Amino acid sequence: MRRRDWQVIKVSIEIIDINDNAPAFSSAHVVFDVVEATQVGSVYVVQAATDIDSPAYGVQKYELDSESGKFGLQISTKLDGSQEVKAILTIVID
Length: 94
Hints:
The structure is a single chain. This protein is mainly β. The protein is built from no helices and three strands. The chain has strands spanning 43-46, 71-77, 83-89. It has a three-stranded antiparallel β-sheet with strand order 1-3-2, with no helix packed on it. A hairpin with a 5-residue loop joins strand 2 and strand 3 (83-89).
């Protein structure tokens, strides 16, 4: 019996989703009034962005665009799969 030197293999790839929808916030800016007497650890809930892509191609991470170092972010995933975003005061405001 003669050995085959080549073989044709059929491969099909199905693209289920691509990241063609950008995440969006309901408002371009969020403003919180924070007074000097606010305690470290105070929490401010920030509305999470929405993305109509599948979760694998949706919002991957949040970052603060601030050099002040006064706030940190805490991201948690709720039971329904949505995310909850909180800004947390990390140092005393003076």
